[in-house]
Amino acid sequence: MQSTPSTGTSLVAGAFAALGATACCLGPLLLVSLGVGGAWIGGLSALEPFRPIFIGVAVLFFSMAFYRLYVVPRQCAPGEACAVPAVNAGQKIAFWILLIFAVAMLLFPVYAHWFY
Q1: Most buried pick, 7, 29, 60, 108, via CB within 10 A?
Q2: Residue pLDDT, tens place only, 63-94
Q3: Total structural domains within the chain
């Protein structure tokens, strides 16, 4: 039985944690730009105190995915999906794309003034 999450699970969890970390800042801008408005959008700022927790969770899951992809790659039996080089390459590409997207979201408060 596998005790650590798979690479794909770590990637998805890290991406969702990054989304949670930016819900207070990036969320209202995205909703307003989509035409969704209302007083309830201001309630998203209540998530600001939890931002460091979400950032920590995102870093943890992206670190786990990096560890699984590069440091200790999983040993696969022939015929398993992870034994196919294209699958491994796809996971590495997905990792870097999601990581760049997550870092851009996490740094949004730094460059948010350009949009408001």
Answers
A1: 7
A2: 888 888 888 877 777 777 777 778 788 888 88
A3: 1
